[in-house]
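Could you join me in thinking about how sequence relates to backbone shape in a protein? We need material for that, and I hope you will provide a protein of your own picking. Label the sequence line and the structure token line clearly, so we can match residues to local backbone shapes. Would you write everything just below, so we can both look at the same thing?
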Amino acid sequence: MKRNQNVQQHSTNFLPYPQPELPWTRIIEHKHFQADATLQMPRTIITREIPDQWQRDKTPYYPIGDNTNMALFRRYEALAAHETRVSFGGRLAEYRYYDMHQVIGSAMAKARKLLEGDRDEAAA
């Protein structure tokens, strides 16, 4: 429990933190899920999401853009460029963190390019 009234200094319930130097990927301030009366409480509760190390049987959380992972992504990206019957998209295919509105925008742009027959542009 934090003594501050508002830890995140805004009115949203969570903020993503995709920076590789931080151990957490998002902070949730729970009172922002509740009615306005809870916003005036003198204390607040936050949760820091700290993902586990990836293992084959676990679901990945967010892309971590360190040198090792980016080099691996570039290798996958080069392999994917040779595929002619599949199109990759979304967070893991582009290896970047997206909020939902960004995912939708990216998917719509990719679909538009694919429907226009421009596979090379859709891959970008």
Q: What stands out?
A: The beta strands are 14-16, 26-29, 46-49.
